[in-house]
């Protein structure tokens, strides 16, 4: 009996020793169901250009792991190189933050099927996109109506539609501002300000800036927002 217990303990100790503990502060795991062979790239935007951080070769096993150091919460991209296929469904955007994250998706619907967990910033960004998508859909409907009015040479209808579009844009901008202020303790706040409402009246950006916590203000997007606001003020815009 004692020998059996000793043997079991030896197995557990060996298993623990064989477990590879990451020395990096960010670990991304995931699975692309249906992907047998291909390449995944984790990318970030650097000076408006996507540059690779890590390359993952898939050969037989569709599960993947990537580990690297993340200086600050940041929007990254998981790009799938399908080889001969030219599908536009090949890029998943995700808000990375220190710790462990997971992305589960499929080969057939790489972007649409993506389920991302492990990031509070991602959770909030998903909430934001869900609301903003309604404004985008409304604007697309109006664009179609505007085109029909243009073909019919109905100028009064076109003017009316343009006013409706301005109203939708205003609602989107106000929602984004309120979202950023209400979540100013997360890095998603300066991110949406920079990505979605960079051309809004400066007083709204000032409000977001003043709402940011010291931690967020010192983050990647917090610094970028501070620099952007300073530049706009110097330009008098």
How does this structure look, described?
The protein is an alpha+beta fold and 237 residues long. It has two domains: 19-116, Sandwich (Immunoglobulin-like), CATH 2.60.40; 122-235, no CATH class. Helices cover 49% and strands 25% of the residues. It has seven helices and eight strands; from the N terminus they run αββββββββαααααα. The protein has helices spanning 2-18, 120-151, 155-182, 188-196, 202-211, 214-217, 220-235; strands at residues 26-33, 37-46, 49-59, 63-68, 74-81, 91-96, 99-106, 115-117. A four-stranded mixed β-sheet has the order 4-1-7-8, with helices on one face. Helix 4 (188-196) packs across helix 7 and helix 5 (202-211) packs antiparallel against helix 7 (220-235). The chain is globular and about 60 Å long. The N and C termini lie far apart (80 Å). Residues 6-18 have low confidence and may be disordered.
The percent of residues in helical segments reads 40-55%
Read across the widest sheet, the strand sequence of neighbours is 4-1-7-8
Main β-sheet: number of strands, strand sense, barrel status? 4 strands, mixed
Shape designation: globular
Structural class of the helices, strands and pairings?
alpha+beta
Q: Give the uncertain stretches in residue-range form.
A: 6-18
Q: Report mean pLDDT, rounded to a whole number.
A: 91
Strand content: 25-35%
Order of helices and strands: HEEEEEEEEHHHHHH
Q: Helix tally?
A: 7
């Amino acid at each position: 009996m004692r020998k059996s217990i000793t043997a079991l303990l030896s197995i557990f100790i060996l298993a623990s020793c064989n477990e590879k503990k990451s020395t990096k502060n960010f670990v991304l795991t995931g699975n692309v169901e249906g992907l047998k062979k291909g390449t995944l790239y984790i990318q970030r935007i650097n000076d408006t250009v996507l540059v690779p951080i890590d390359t993952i070769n898939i050969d037989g096993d569709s599960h993947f792991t990537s580990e690297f150091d993340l200086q600050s919460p940041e929007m990254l991209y998981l790009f799938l190189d399908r080889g001969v296929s030219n599908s536009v469904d090949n890029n998943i955007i995700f808000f990375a933050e220190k710790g462990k994250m997971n992305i589960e998706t499929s080969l057939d619907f790489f972007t649409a099927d993506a389920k991302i967990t492990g990031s509070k910033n991602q959770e909030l960004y998903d909430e934001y996109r869900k609301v903003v998508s309604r404004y985008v859909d409304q604007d697309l409907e109006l664009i179609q109506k505007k085109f029909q009015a243009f073909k019919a040479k109905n100028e009064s209808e076109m003017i009316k539609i343009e006013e409706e579009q301005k109203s939708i844009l205003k609602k989107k901008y106000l929602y984004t501002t309120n979202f950023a202020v209400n979540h100013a303790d997360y890095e998603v706040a300066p991110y949406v300000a920079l990505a979605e409402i960079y051309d809004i009246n400066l007083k709204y950006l000032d409000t977001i800036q003043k709402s940011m916590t010291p931690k967020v203000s010192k983050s990647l997007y917090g610094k970028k927002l501070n620099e952007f606001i300073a530049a706009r003020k110097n330009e008098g815009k």
